[in-house]
Amino acid sequence: MKKSHVLLMLACCLIPIAALGAVFLFNVPVNTVILAGVALFCPISHLLMMRFMPGEHGAHSHEARPTQSRPFPAKDL
Known about the structure:
Shape: elongated
Number of strands: 0
Low-confidence stretches: none
Mean pLDDT: 80
Structural class: mainly alpha
Order of helices and strands: HH
Distance between the termini: 51 Å
Helix content: 55-70%
Strand content: under 5%
Largest sheet: none
């Protein structure tokens, strides 16, 4: 198993535990924890997608890509 996968799984398990700990140990309102989680979900998921998903944003290779065949010829406008 890759080290990055282990770290990602560890983070995904510890974040909800920390949120529950904040609610029960420090009497933080549940609405505040949910609002903070929703507000942070989008930027964190964007960073994770950019880091771990293959695609155009990684190292660029100069290999030719296979072309997809189209069922109909393209029309010039």
